[in-house]
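TASK: fixed-backbone design
INPUT:
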């Protein structure tokens, strides 16, 4: 992923997260993202207990494959336990896929 694409994705994700989690809830839950080569992973985090940090649960992974973004859902607890969201066709625009993730018509991500 080139630098321009990374900056665009970061701006999109910051805006999405800011809208998704209202300020009043940001001490109870947060969404973070990781950019890794041609992947973006979204994780929901919640506080473990006072002063012990946050614990996370992976929600979705977006993968840039052959010029289009595919979405994967987490299945199980292992690091490689990702399955493709077959109902969501790969698309070249990341923002379109982020919208499909948010809609989650099959209940794959927001359980």
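OUTPUT:
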């Amino acid at each position: 992923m080139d630098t321009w694409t990374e900056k665009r994705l970061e701006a999109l994700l910051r805006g999405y997260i800011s809208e998704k989690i209202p300020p009043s809830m940001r001490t109870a839950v947060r969404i973070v993202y990781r950019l890794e080569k041609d992947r973006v992973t979204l994780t929901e985090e919640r506080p473990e207990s006072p002063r012990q940090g946050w614990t996370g649960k992976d929600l979705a992974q977006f993968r840039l494959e052959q010029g289009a973004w595919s979405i994967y859902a987490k299945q199980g607890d292992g690091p490689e336990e990702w399955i493709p969201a077959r109902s969501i066709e790969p698309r070249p625009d990341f923002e379109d896929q982020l919208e499909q993730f948010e809609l989650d018509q099959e209940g794959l991500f927001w359980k």
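COMMENT: The chain has a mean pLDDT of 92.
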